[in-house]
Amino acid sequence: MRKLALGIMLLGASFITKAQSVHGEIITESGAIPATELASKLENKQEMPAKVTGVVESVCKAAGCWMKVKTTDGQTMRVTFKDYGFFVPKDIVGKTVVFEGVAKVKTTSIAMLKHYAEDGGKSKEEIAKITVPEKAIGFVANGVIVK
Predict the structure, then answer these.
(1) Per-residue pLDDT tens over the stretch 91-117
(2) Whole-angstrom Cα distance, residue 92 to residue 56?
(3) Residue 53's Cα: distance from chain center in Å?
(4) 20-146 topology per CATH
(5) CA–CA separation, 124 vs 28, rounded Å?
(6) Residue 107: φ, ψ to 5°
(7) Domain extents for the chain?
(8) pLDDT tens digits for range 3-37
(9) CA–CA distance, 115 with 48 (Å, rounded to integer)
(10) CA 22, 139, 80: angle at the middle one, nearest 5?
(11) HEC per residue, the chain
């Protein structure tokens, strides 16, 4: 009986350690490319559908309405959510995520960069240093798995 109880507890613990949450549309991990490879896959395109996996660097502190995922050389990619139809938990920094949607090369205005910085909890001094628009790969996800 003890062995059975111990087995059940170990099985339950394994499910807890593999727990993940899904936000937005239901997606799978199958076929996801590393965030570090997205730029080379995008090449000369302005946008493309993709499924990507990466590590969360920061999250909107106001509502979880965006996240930044590490790409290459200390860079990050901002991931927003389709039609603001869902958000992610605000405590997922450092966690691995899988997200599916559309990658786009875009320019983010100074005003929007300052808004994002404010949502991200940056100081007034850091926000004041934002003086040029940013051209980068962005991503609009329709589903996210937080591992």
Answers:
(1) 999 999 999 999 999 888 999 999 989
(2) 7
(3) 8
(4) OB fold (Dihydrolipoamide Acetyltransferase, E2P) (2.40.50)
(5) 39
(6) -110, 125
(7) 20-146
(8) 544 444 444 444 444 579 999 999 999 999 999 99
(9) 26
(10) 60
(11) CHHHHHHHHHHHHHHHHCCCEEEECCCCCCCCEEHHHHHHHHCCCCEEEEEEEEEEEEECCCCCCEEEEECCCCCEEEEEEHHHCCCCCCCCCCCEEEEEEEEEEEEECHHHHHHHHHHCCCCHHHHHCCCCCEEEEEEEEEEEEEC
- pLDDT tens-place string over residues 32-83: 999 999 988 988 899 999 999 999 999 999 999 999 999 987 789 999 999 9
Nearest to 88 by CA among 17, 24, 18, 20: 24
Tokens of 126: 């850091």
Give me 76's structure tokens.
């990050």
